[in-house]
Amino acid sequence: MSPLVASFVAHFGEMGSRWGINRTVGQIYALIYLSPRPLNADDLTEALAFSRSNVSMGLKELQSWRLVRLKHLPGDRREYFEAPSDAWEIFRTLAEERRRREVEPTLTMLRGALMAAPTTDDDRVAQERMQGMHDLIELMMTWFDDVQRMDARTLAQLMKLGAKVGRLLEFTGHLKVAGQRDPE
């Protein structure tokens, strides 16, 4: 592994723990992502000096997140793995998986809680706040669905607009800055 690749792999392992995956899985993914060819478990074990069982568990985790694809090479019985090279595809996959694993269960819980009849004033306040959270998450998921349908070029253009969208809305009178009061 070159110093350039080793640096990225080490950093990705460190960042992985902040993103909700363990260091080993992060490093395995980084090496597969950077590799110009599919890698098998033996390649990963040797390059990263991890145990074969850690590599196998890491590969299963990455497959469950749909971040790596299994590939078979002609004449070779081993399983090889590759990652999409397109960063937008990876971003979309991660966003979809996070939605499925984190957001949808939260929405299900909130819907159930909002259907319950409040029995106290505290419950009514709690439901009002849950309703606000539910509405925000639903709005974000509608926006997410719209964004997911955009091609990468359009999405990049939208992201480059950044604060210009806010200035346009402010100019047209459709923007209220957070913390700003309505004129009375």
TrEMBL record:
GO molecular function, one term: DNA-binding transcription factor activity
InterPro entries (UniProt xref): HTH-GbsR_regulator, HTH_MarR-typ, MJ1563, WH-like_DNA-bd_sf, WH_DNA-bd_sf
Top-level taxon in the UniProt lineage: Bacteria
DNA-binding listed as a keyword: yes
Domain spans labelled HTH marR-type: 20-79
Record's keyword terms, sorted: DNA-binding, Transcription, Transcription regulation
Record field: transmembrane: none
SUPFAM superfamilies according to UniProt: Winged helix' DNA-binding domain (SSF46785)
Annotated Pfam families: MarR_2 (PF12802)
Protein name stated in the entry: HTH-type transcriptional regulator
Family note: Belongs to the GbsR family.
